[in-house]
Amino acid sequence: MKCNAIEGPRVGAWKLAAVLGLAAAVHMAGVDLALAQSGGGSGAFAPLQTAVQMIVDFITGPFGRLLAIIAVIGLGFLAFAGRLSWFTAGAVIVGIGLVFGAPTIVDEMIAAVGK
């Protein structure tokens, strides 16, 4: 029993060779470009690392501090209205601690495991 769905139309050997040759040429060109990039001591991911560091500095810097102040003010208004639950207060306090303590927490975890 022959299954025609799997076999499909026949591709000529020259078409297959042309496609494989083109794929090999593109692959080799990509390898040359990748090898041409030297880290220069800063690494290939230096721009990405800089961008992520800017995000961390933004969150843990003055903007994050202002957000934490607004969150504590919100807790004050909830307490004033008699609607503050201890769960909400604890969640806000723990969240603030995690946001601003994140760099230290991660550094301590890395130091505990070792490099």
From TrEMBL:
Keywords: Membrane, Transmembrane, Transmembrane helix
Transmembrane feature ranges: 60-80, 87-106
Cross-referenced InterPro entries: TrbC/VirB2
Membrane topology: Multi-pass membrane protein
Cellular location(s): Membrane
GO CC aspect terms: membrane
Protein name: VIRB2 type IV secretion
Organism: Mesorhizobium helmanticense
